Structure formats: structure tokens, C-alpha cells
Amino acid sequence: MTGTPGSPGSPGTPEAPGTPVAPEAPVARAAPARQMWPLYAAGFTTAFGAHGIAANLGGHGGGAVTSLMVLGGLLALYDGAEVLLKPVFGTLADRVGARPVLLGGLVAFAAASAVYALADSPGPLWAARLGQGAAASAFSPSASALVARLNPAAKHGRAFGGYGFCKSVGYTLGPLLGGVLVWTGGLRLLFTVLAVTGAAVAAWAALAVPVVPPLPKARQTVLDLARRLARPDFLRPTAALAAATAALSVGVGFLPVSGRTAGLDTVATGAAVSVLAACAAVVQPRAGRALDAGRLTARGGILAGLLLTAAGLGCATLPGVSGVLSGAALIGTGTGLITPLGFAALAASTPAERLGQTMGTAELGRELGDAGGPLLVAAVASLTTLDHGYATLAVLLAAAPVTALGRRAARGPGPR
Prior knowledge:
mainly alpha; Growth Hormone, Chain: A
């Protein structure tokens, strides 16, 4: 058996499902693909569920969506639950083990999806969206922690590249496949598919993902946690991940607006968003492999990704289809660089016994970027123009790499 593109690596002799990995023994080789793909499928599930429903609620919510305020509330439920609960479930994963939290979250996601699939009315829709968000808060950071725990540090780039690739596929297919499902059988069919998907991935993970026991750890006070989260090796990757998610959300949400202004039809604007998502999906596993091979450093790759993303936002201000497409391609490429390198950097700087807490808190940063980016651009655009909104976010993203380059130039060339 050989590793597949985007998979974590070539398999060795795998542990049987349910066999604990000794907590005192460091992982010596990459986990086999059959153990990693259920984790990648969990990443796909949360991305597909979030975007598949969000993209179709407004047009197909039936009697449940009676106003823009109601639509906004339904959309905010999922993200709001993630913002509040991801750090909590990440800490729980460190305490009881990431595998049970992963499995429990997937089962809860299936159950929450079934709530609306079985009862087509406004009340169950609100309950289903809240339940999906809470469940994703459990299995998403747990999957990230397991990706790190099951692979040695030298393979983290490739492992997180594959994980990010599958999430990008979920973000891409969510609006498209979700739209087809809703057109075929209404919103209840989409929720039914999500219920089946969550249950299937839970069963797959139960069979294939080994038990990874929680590691012993020293008692941590709130002050200890605050100090650890205030360290540069946590703040910098997390800020970069938040910036990448902000730019991605802005691209998905506002590039179609720019496309319509340029005279493009809905098919063309949808294609532009697909270009963004496709670039992000293609780049992530390649960036991860380059990191593992030593051809790329996490810091250099993240800075380059921020510059590319800022350049993409700048291109979005150009008139016509060329501005929209070049902006989409550069934003997708830049965010595709940042995402696996950011998570790999976090995993490398975090004690193994705190991985769940770190990943959950980093995911909180991404959620804040997901909400903050569009809000910033919308606020600036409401006062000026959308192009000024793009430019404002571009300047913020370019500030860190430009500052880093300036400091390097001030220090002068290093020793030969």
C-alpha cells in the first residue's frame, strides 16, 4: 500500500483499532493512510455541513426563514457555538482522549442533523443548527489533535496538508452539492445526507482510528494557560490562520459581488469562487510536503502566504473579470500556504498533552477571522466602496510580512 496524494504518508505496521498508542512512546513513523482518512473525512464533514446549509438557507429555508434577521440568526448559531465551545472540547480531548470526543461529536452531529430531517418545521431547524455547531466544536479540534498525535513532527506538514485539502473540498462542494440536494428534495434531504454522513464517518473512525490515551500533564492554572497562549509561538500562527480565514471568507462572500459589478453572470461568479477554493485545496498538501522535506520553513511560508493573499485582495480591486479571477487565484493560493503551515507550527510548539486545548483555541481564532474579515470589509465598503474594503484588509495582512522584511533588512546580511 502506498500513500495517496494528500494522505499522511506511507503506512507501516498499523495499530489495530481500539489498541492504545503508548503515551510514553513518541510516534516514530507516519500513521497509515487508513487511520488518517477518517480524520480527513471529519474535516470534510464540518466544512460541507457549514457551507452546504449556509449557502441554501436563504433561498430554500421555506417558512423557517421569514426575514434577513432570522437568516442571520440561523447562520450565526453554527459559528457562535463553535466560538464558545471549541476551546472547551479541545481541553476535554486532552483530559479524556481525543478519540472519544471525536466519535461523540460525530454521533451528535448526525443526531442534530436528523432532528430537522425528521421534523420539517422552524423550531427543529434552529435546534438542528445549534446542535450541528456544538457537535462540530467537539470533533473538529479533536481531529486536528489526532492528526498531530498520530504523526511524528517531521510529517506534520504533509498530515495537516491532507487534512486542509479535505476541508477545502468540503467548502467547495458544500454550496454546489448542497444546492443540488436541496433542488432535488428540499432542505430536509440535505439534512438527511448530513445525518448519514456524520454517522458513517463516526463508524469509520471507530473502526480505523486507534485509541490515543491522554498524556499525563502537570496541573495548569488559568494564569499558566494565559501565559502559554500569549507566547509568540502560539499567537503568530493563530493570527496568521485567522487572517487567512478572514481573507477566504471575504473572497467567497464578496468576489461574486465584484463579479456582478463587472457584468458577470451567476455561473461565472460561482466559477470564480470555485477557483479560489480549488487553489486552496491544491496548494495545501504540496505546502505540507515542502515543509516536511525542508524546502520551506513554516515562518517563511506563512509570510509568503500573507503577501500572496494581500496581493489577491489588491487584484480584486482591479476592474473586469481579470481582477476577479486573479484575486480568487491568489487568495486561494495564499490561504492554502498558510493553513497547513500554521497548524504544523502550532503542533510543533505545543506539548503533546495540550494539543487538544491548543487546536481548539486556534480554531477559535479562525472563527473570529471568519466573522471579522467580512464585517471589516463590509463596514469600510458601506462608508466608501468595496474596493476600499479589499484594500484595507490587504494592508492589514501585508503588515506582518512587510515588517518582518524591514527588520531583516535593518539587521543586514547574516554571516556567509
